[in-house]
Amino acid sequence: MGLFDRLKRVVSANLNDLVAKAEDPEKILEQALLEMQEDLVKLRQGVAQAIAAQKRTEKQYNDANNEVIKWQRNAQLALQKGDENLARQALQRKKSFDENANALKGTLDQQSATVENLKRSLIQLESKISEAKTKKEMLKARSRAAKAQEQLEGIVGGMNTSSAAAAFERMEEKVMIQEARAQSAAELTGADLESQFAQLEAGSDIDDELAAMKLQLSGASPKQPQLPEQGNTSQNNNQSSNQSSNQSSNQSSNQPNEVVDAELEALRKQLDQM
């Protein structure tokens, strides 16, 4: 294959591709239907002309037949009158019109066949045009639907769904982290309250232990003080009076312990009042 042949094929292929891409189905269908309608107009004109020619030939044929009949009567009339020469001329004229009528009959038959074929072609073309109109509307609707689907696919394809999904995942993770922080803060707040109460309980134990140590230093039994009940108020008063008598009897011998005993008594009174 020569260089020019290859170049011609490449150019033709590119032109065909450009033409194929430039073809709009709706416009092509409209143009095709317009061309079919133009052919229909031409065919109708051709049928009309053929029918007109047929009518002229038919008239000529009928006129020739009438002349044949006419000269046949003239020949008979001349022969009846005894004019044989005139009768012979009439027969010659009749023969001429008869030959013309036969020729016209052949032409008329051909024209009649042509007109019938043209009429059938006209009916077929009209049927095709009617079918083409229906198919054109259907193909236009399908073409528009395909274009709409193509545009939709282009929009969907242009969307960055992966990044959008990743953004949702990031936001979900961020919300989960925020929820975890809030839960941790709530747990820390509860733990802080519990630690405060634990410190209060620990401070009470230390105070009790301090009081017991003070009792040991004062020579009393190292029992931990208990909170008095409301029904034992008289017993607590007796104990207070006994302790007062003990303090007065031991005042001369344990003068340094009076301050501790006074503090313990004050602590007991505070506990009684709680």
TrEMBL record:
Residues 218-233 have a biased composition (Polar residues). Residues 47-151 form a coiled coil. Residues 234-255 have a biased composition (Low complexity). It holds the Pfam family PspA_IM30. InterPro entries: PspA_VIPP1. Residues 218-274 are annotated as: Disordered. It comes from the Bacteria. Keywords: Coiled coil. Residues 265-274 have a biased composition (Basic and acidic residues). Belongs to the PspA/Vipp/IM30 family. This is Phage shock protein A. It comes from Mastigocoleus testarum BC008. The lineage of its organism: Bacteria, Bacillati, Cyanobacteriota, Cyanophyceae, Nostocales.
